[in-house]
Recover the amino acids of this structure.
């Protein structure tokens, strides 16, 4: 869920929870008591606020996440407060998503902001193909079609410029507070002929699990139980079978055979993409495997110390630069900026200095080799976080 603060993300989550019956009546009553304690009229956002109150009281409830069920699908909605927190989370959250839901307020003093466009730029950069734009607070502008059309026209050229295909983009006028066009078509927008929000999300759902095309990629996380012949990892591409021939660990260049596979505590004969696995190897490995890739010998990623990348910059890229790639912290020898892109227009900028909140295409020289691949080929091997000193400085994808 993307959008400027105060444009209604929390209210929309609360409405979706109530209108899809994904939250208990008891929870709604608790939220009403919470709003009464604040001497305010109840609104859907208080459902999340009451979660927050419980968490502050010591319970382990994640205030930023809500689960919504609709038909045979389940949606995990994440509302991240603050701009930098959202950017940090998008490298993991958005990298696994295939659809972005952008909330834009139709209220005349809010509307389209630079941050609105930056969120879209990051989402597209991280490979999200589908976009639903919910034009919110339509009740505050009298459900005026002209206000909706103004926002749609104001965003459409930018959305196209940064690479979203027109067929993959939908706009829907909503009132998260009143519930218009959330689950059912609203009579207040008789001029809108499209589907309600939940239906647009439902038809775009799925398809983001990963490739199962035989090009095996397992990101290794370390050894288990102190044994050097049992490793843990996650299959991010392909599948593996017990006694499968021709597998190796990159960049260690070690040939191995997997003698056993454990998933969820049980021995299995095979495992597919998306599985977290423990693997019994035919030999001990006397090296740190964290961040390494177990793959098939016939189609292995090449370990490289130089990559071309696109980086969304949140802090000046200077001093001691490093990247975090698959849990490994790697020093940068140098960075050469090729192009800079304005994240609010999608256009190239003449300056080669990496300005904050813009993107750069750059060549990175690293102190060690990493098993990187293009982001559009294997997402988990094509993304990283950038640090300047110890400070978060941006997110990057391998081009």
């Amino acid at each position: 869920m993307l959008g400027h603060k105060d444009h209604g993300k929390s209210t929309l989550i609360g409405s979706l929870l109530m209108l899809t019956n994904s939250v208990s009546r008891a929870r709604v009553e608790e939220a009403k008591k919470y709003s009464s304690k604040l001497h305010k009229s109840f609104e859907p956002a208080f459902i999340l606020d009451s979660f927050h109150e419980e968490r502050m009281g010591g319970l382990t409830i994640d205030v930023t996440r809500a689960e919504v069920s609709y038909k045979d699908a389940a949606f995990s909605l994440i509302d991240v407060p603050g701009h930098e927190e959202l950017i940090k989370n998008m490298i993991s959250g958005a990298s696994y998503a295939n659809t972005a839901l952008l909330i834009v307020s139709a209220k005349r003093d809010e509307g389209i902001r630079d941050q609105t466009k930056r969120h879209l730029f990051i989402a597209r950069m991280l490979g999200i193909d589908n976009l639903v734009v919910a034009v919110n607070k339509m009740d505050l502008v009298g459900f005026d079609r002209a206000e909706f059309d103004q926002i749609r026209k104001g965003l459409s050229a930018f959305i196209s410029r940064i690479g979203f295909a027109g067929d993959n983009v939908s706009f829907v006028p909503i009132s998260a507070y009143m519930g218009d066009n959330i689950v059912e078509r609203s009579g207040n927008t008789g001029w809108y002929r499209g589907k309600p929000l939940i239906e647009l999300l439902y038809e775009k759902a799925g398809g983001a699990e990963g490739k199962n095309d035989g090009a095996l990629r397992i990101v290794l996380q370390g050894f288990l139980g102190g044994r050097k012949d049992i490793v843990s990892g996650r299959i991010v591409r392909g599948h593996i079978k017990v006694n499968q021939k021709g597998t190796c660990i990159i960049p260690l260049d070690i040939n191995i055979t997997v003698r056993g596979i454990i998933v969820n505590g049980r021995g299995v004969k095979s495992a597919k993409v998306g599985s977290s696995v423990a693997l019994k190897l035919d030999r001990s490995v006397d090296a740190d495997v964290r961040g390494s890739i177990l793959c098939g010998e016939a189609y292995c990623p090449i370990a490289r110390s130089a990559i071309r990348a696109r980086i969304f910059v949140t802090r000046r890229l200077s001093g001691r630069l490093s990247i975090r790639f698959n849990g490994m912290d790697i020093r940068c020898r140098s960075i050469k900026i090729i192009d800079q892109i304005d994240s609010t227009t999608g256009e190239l900028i003449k300056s080669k200095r990496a300005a904050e909140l813009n993107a750069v295409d750059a060549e990175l020289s690293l102190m060690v080799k990493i098993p990187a691949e293009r982001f559009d080929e294997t997402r988990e091997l094509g993304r990283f976080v950038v640090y300047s000193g110890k400070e978060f400085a941006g997110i990057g994808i391998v081009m």
Remarks:
- Helices lie at 9-19, 25-37, 46-56, 83-93, 114-125, 145-161, 197-204.
- Residues 53-63 have pLDDT under 50 and may be disordered.
